[in-house]
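Q: Give me the 3D complex with magnesium ion.
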Amino acid sequence: MADFANQAAPSSKPSTNGTLRKKLQGYVGFANLPNQVHRKSVKKGFNFTVMVVGESGLGKSTLVNTLFNAPLYPSKEHAPLTEESPKTVDIQVLSTDIEENGVRLKLNVVDTPGFGDFINNEESWKPILRTIESRFDAYLEQENRVNRSKITDTRVNACLYFIAPTGHSLKALDIEFMKRLHNRVNLIPVIAKSDTMTHEEIAAFKERILLDIAHHDIKIYHAQHYESDDIETINETKDVMSKIPFAIVGSDKVIETPDGRHVRGRKYPWGVIEVDNEDHCDFVKLRQMLIRTHMEELKEFTNDIHYENYRTEKLIALGYQQDNSVFREVDPIAKLEEERAMHEAKLVKMEQDMKHVFQQKVQEKESKLTQSEAELYSKHKEMKDALEKQRLDLEEKKRRIEQGRPITPEKTKKKGFGFPGGK
Ligand SMILES: Nc1nc2c(ncn2[C@@H]2O[C@H](COP(=O)(O)OP(=O)(O)O)[C@@H](O)[C@H]2O)c(=O)[nH]1
Ligand SMILES: [Mg+2]
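A: Here is the predicted complex, encoded as structure tokens.
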């Protein structure tokens, strides 16, 4: 859009997709559209739902606190003690409003305590999939309401899957979970507590994990870059992508480094691991992708891919069918041509009908005429015959008179044709 506004000279050039790109004379103002969207979004605030899945103690709660720099989870000392640990995977939801430079973000965290904590974890993924789908259902139900002005979106936009820092490969549980969930949510694998491994171990572990993921055809989230992005953004996205699975370290405690700085990190006898230091772990990259650069895209993928697929499957299962002819593209010229052909066919039919009626009428008239002609002819013949007979009679009379013979009495019968003086 910017290049529209920056062009002052009036001219036009064909763009790559064949349409003519008009250069504008002066400033029209629609280059400001992104700003309008920006203002509206800021006013409305943002909403983001992230899910954290992984075995207990991998640092899920700590990471959430670290990520949003807010104590979403009370520290362990203050958390109420439960008498008994739950027997199934629990689903816990935490919501908080955070604000930065006047921009409000309503952050929802779906935690899954208990995942992978049992002797038999075969079905651990089930309650999680159910949660994700029931959130899709809730959205679908709201979409189908008559009044859709107040839709609350609780769909899960991203799922951080915590992989234990074993250094070996993915466990069967990890593979099962990811395979079951990858069509429903944006999966972002992370290596938990990466401070327990050396840089070399992490690099080798990452490689191993990616191989496993590829081998099992698991689809994890891939941050996209677009043609319109500037080179810096493209490089940034590529850089973020190269870090997946993110090796993370979480800590909500501020500690002092040997050189006197106060940082969020973890202190060890051999030194300090800084959470916000890119040389120490991938936490910064994960936060950058999740919050700064790709939050909107994660939401878009949730809506356009995962939710759309779910919705289609659900509606088909309910027996809805799509009438594709409704969506047939209409070519106005072809449509006109079709209408013209139909009109012509109608005219031809009308003409044929009229001809048929006309022929019928003509035939009727003709047969009537031939009939009356025959009648006339027979009458004419009758009269001609009568006249001929009369002429013969008269000639006979004439002859007799000339011969001086008297007229036979029978001849007087023909009164009508006799001479009045002849009687
Ligand atoms: N070494 C190390 N310990 C961590 C890290 N993150 C959290 N922990 C610790 O691991 C323990 C469990 O963390 P918690 O966040 O409650 O894990 P959750 O059960 O997955 O929610 C706590 O004692 C944390 O201090 C990390 O990145 N590295
Ligand atoms: Mg926890």
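A quick observation: Residues 1-16, 77-85, 411-423 have pLDDT under 50 and may be disordered.
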